[in-house]
Amino acid sequence: MNRFLLPLSIFIVVVVFLGIGLKLNPREIPSPLVGKAAPEFSQPQLLDPAKVFSPADLKGKVWLLNFWASWCSGCKTEHPVLMDLAKSGAVPIYGMDYKDQRDEAMTWLSRWGNPYPVVGVDDAGRVGINYGVYGVPETYVIDKQGVIRYKQIGPLDPDTIEKKILPLVKQLESQ
Amino acid sequence: MNWLILIMMLLWSGPVWAGEARPLADDPVAEARLKHLAVELRCLVCQNQTLADSNAPLAEDLRREVREMIAKNMSDREIIEFLTARYGDFVLYRPPLKATTSVLWIGPFVLLTVGAVVLVITLRRRARKVVDVPVTEEEHRRVEQLLAEGGKRS
Fold this sequence. Notes:
The complex is a heterodimer.
Chain A: H1 2-23, E1 43-44, E2 52-53, E3 63-68, H2 73-88, E4 93-98, H3 102-112, E5 119-122, H4 126-130, E6 138-142, E7 148-153, H5 158-173
Parallel strand pairs in A: 3-4, 4-5
Antiparallel strand pairs in A: 1-2, 3-6, 6-7
Chain B: H1 2-21, H2 28-38, H3 57-71, H4 76-87, H5 102-129, H6 137-153
Helix pairs in contact in B: 2-3
């Protein structure tokens, strides 16, 4: 009996590590930007290119910055969730159209609906790089001081909004 | 005459294509630095490829970004800091030695030491089990007798 005890315990340890490894999502890389000031930008607006969208205009507000594109399938999945959140009025969602064609983005918004008060255009993907975006959709929660408080990698779902985004927004609003 | 114009047009257009395809071709030093840096950096979309290998759009953008920083005469360290500030240590193919990466760096040596200790203990225990048993005169004689009999039979 004693002979098998050591190999068995080693086996169990290996299985536990394997189990943990399988549960981790390698796509979810922790962002070093959480807790840091949201990078500044001033990008032309999608609906009115003569106007500029800049986070400086949103100081004193809690808001979400959502990177999306008309070519991104995850964004289509996420879209109804954003529409519901926008309708609830809990928190404004500002959009950043990431490496997209202007007319296709406009068509996308008019066909599926526009949850954003303002959409910025990030043609070259530079704003994306400054925010550490490596795949759309990605969403940032930004507080009144302009500090990034949370980063969602991949589509938002109702569960994440209910359990993470809304409580965080409420807490940041009260500060 | 028409042919001549066509040939002239082809000759003129050649250098225009070449200029568009390679933005930094006139600076081989910068391109060498980009290559040197890009093999140290991970593409975040296709995670087991370096920035040099990857064709993902993000990798192209990041290469462009690194090219521009090289053109601005930033040091390798500044460029790597720029990227880790945005994408974290994950962007580095060689993770730095930090508290969070200590298991990664020290783990293999710990396992090696544990293995070596177990091996030494096992070998010593085995050595202790092998005890010299003295052979008596009587047994010697019996062995010789048996050997002699065996020899006759064959």
